[in-house]
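Figure 2 data, in text form.
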Amino acid sequence: MKIQVRVPATSANLGPGFDCMGLALNLWNHFTVEDLPDGAGIVVENSGEGADELPRDRSHLVMRTMLTELAHLTGEASWYDQPPALKLVCQNQVPAGSGLGSSSTAVLGGLLLAHAYYSQRVNQAREVDQE
């Protein structure tokens, strides 16, 4: 199973609209997650803006958010404590620490990936039950 999402950069610092108005920009962070064979653990690949400074393990903000949300969706802490083998690929255009929402893209990307992953898992389980 392979899931891809993309999230735009943002700016909420729009002069008189400070903290009230936002703007999506044409810079995008792209995130892809896919299953790996059992026992492969968590693998994170980063490219683009800030790639060398970002974690390459489960402490990566996208992965942490995804696993936390999967634990919440399923009601099973094992999703966070003992996650399945997953590969996360992050292609970053939004510079970290620039005020353009790189952390927001990571959190939203993790949430979107978690919900899509959960939905696909539920649908696969239904198909197996119907056979």
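Caption note: The helical segments are 61-74, 78-81, 102-130.
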